[in-house]
TrEMBL record:
Domain of life per record: Bacteria
Gene3D superfamilies for the chain: Phosphatidylinositol (PI) phosphodiesterase
Name of the protein in question: Glycerophosphodiester phosphodiesterase
Pfam families listed in its UniProt record: GDPD
Length: 227
């Protein structure tokens, strides 16, 4: 079974997260795929940022939903980087992408881009929200989806199956072999997040995970040699 390593918001341990600089570094580091986050701006652009507000990662303040793309472009997202839109990431790197959406509205906007640019084979869509996973699958036939959870109940595999998600992305600190085995028995893959240490990498291997999300390039290299 191949073990996939996903660059978390690019490689946010060494570059400003969710920036073109971070995504290019992730690709150069050989990540199997790149994970990113999407929010809708006030004027409907797919802004690449994790938080709903710009405060933590830029020199601005306030919610993304309250700003136009032009206003977002004025902000420094770290080391002079600007907040990119999803389409710019598509053009900046050629790697497979895992795009996390925060709600149903973002699902609809993302669906338009995936269909317009024929990205079903390249873009996997993830979300903490079951309804968003269901919506993107309805809008884009054949799209691969991931249900994310930080905390979960005994029904998490059933939730993934009900939403049509082929993969579960689960917090490595709470993950158990029982959950992984249950998922694999239902043909649902499991990736762990965020794997940033050798101990967590060994745990990911011991749990027989299908992959891991990491902030650091060296985890990808180490993962190739960890039994």
């Amino acid at each position: 079974m191949s073990f996939l390593t996903l660059g978390h918001r690019g490689v946010m341990g060494v570059e400003p997260e969710n920036t073109l600089r971070s995504f290019v570094r992730a690709e150069a580091s050989g990540m199997d795929a790149i994970e990113l986050d999407l929010h809708l701006s006030k004027d409907g652009a797919l802004a690449v940022m994790h938080d709903a507000d710009v405060d933590r990662t830029t020199d601005g303040t306030g919610p993304i939903a309250g700003k136009t793309l032009a206003e977002l472009r004025e902000l420094d997202a770290g080391q002079g980087e600007r907040i990119p839109v999803f389409e710019e990431v598509l053009d900046a790197v050629s790697s497979p992408l895992q795009a996390e959406i925060k709600d149903v509205a973002a699902a609809r906007a993302l669906a338009e881009v995936i269909l317009e640019r024929d990205l079903v084979g390249r873009v996997e869509v993830s979300s903490f929200h079951d309804k968003a996973v269901v919506e993107i699958a309805r809008l884009v036939p054949g799209v691969r989806t991931v249900l994310i959870a930080g905390r979960w109940g005994a029904d998490v595999v059933d939730r993934a199956k009900a939403a049509g998600a082929a993969t579960l992305a689960l917090n490595i600190r709470r993950l158990t072999l029982e959950v992984v085995e249950q998922a694999h028995a239902e043909s649902v893959k499991v990736i762990g997040w965020v794997v940033n240490t050798q101990d967590h990498l060994r745990l990911a291997r011991a749990l027989n995970l299908d992959g891991a999300t990491t902030d650091f390039p060296e985890i990808r290299r180490a993962g190739r040699f960890t039994a």
